[in-house]
């Protein structure tokens, strides 16, 4: 009986320590907040739940991906792939960090933001992998523009995905 109590006490101490570590690490980075992914709509749009329970449609800042679900629009080349890749990066139910833009709304009342997973900028990952192009550059929402443009240059050089079709990304995905 004594051994069981000692084992339970040790288990409690270990669990308690891990819980304390989790609580210490559970603060978002400065300027960011935790959100829960409800679902990825397409490569550059997600629906999230804020910590207060509010549901928001979020448009990822400074990027554009080919259409995959836009009404009255054919699925564009790499549209489904961009959407699938975004779903891998941001699975349903995942808690991620979100950094709002300034202003934080577009003309369609969508929240404008950068999403961070494991301290990596999802917007930048989508560009780096050739699923998105840098677009919709409006001051003052240009905080990570330089990093995104560098990622885009590398994706172009490597002819990654959207950059594998000459002229496609530059056409805003409309001529193909």
Automatic annotation (TrEMBL):
UniProt key word Hydrolase: yes
CDD domains: SNc
Pfam families on file: SNase
PANTHER family in the record: EBNA2 BINDING PROTEIN P100, SERINE_THREONINE-PROTEIN KINASE 31
Phosphoprotein keyword on record: no
Residues of the TNase-like domain: 31-165
InterPro entries: SNase_OB-fold_sf (IPR035437), Staphylococal_nuclease_OB-fold (IPR016071), Thermonucl_AS (IPR002071)
Protein name in UniProt: Thermonuclease
GO MF terms held by the record: endonuclease activity; hydrolase activity; nucleic acid binding
UniProt entry keywords in alphabetical sequence: Endonuclease, Hydrolase, Nuclease
Origin superkingdom: Bacteria
């Amino acid at each position: 009986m004594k051994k069981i109590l000692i084992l339970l006490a040790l288990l409690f101490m270990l669990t308690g320590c891990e819980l304390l570590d989790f609580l210490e690490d559970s603060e978002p980075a400065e300027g960011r907040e935790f959100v829960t992914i409800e679902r990825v709509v397409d490569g550059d749009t997600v629906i999230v739940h804020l910590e207060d329970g509010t549901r928001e449609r979020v448009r990822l800042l400074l990027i554009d991906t080919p259409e995959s679900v836009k009404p009255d629009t054919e699925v564009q080349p790499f549209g489904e792939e961009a959407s699938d890749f975004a779903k891998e990066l941001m699975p349903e139910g995942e808690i991620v960090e979100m950094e709002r833009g300034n202003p934080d709304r577009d003309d369609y009342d969508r929240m404008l933001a950068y999403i961070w997973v494991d301290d990596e900028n999802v917007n930048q990952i989508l560009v780096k992998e050739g699923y998105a192009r840098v677009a919709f550059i409006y001051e003052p929402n240009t905080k990570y523009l330089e990093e995104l443009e560098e990622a885009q240059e590398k994706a172009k050089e490597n002819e990654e995905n959207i950059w594998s079709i000459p002229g496609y990304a530059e056409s805003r995905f409309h001529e193909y």
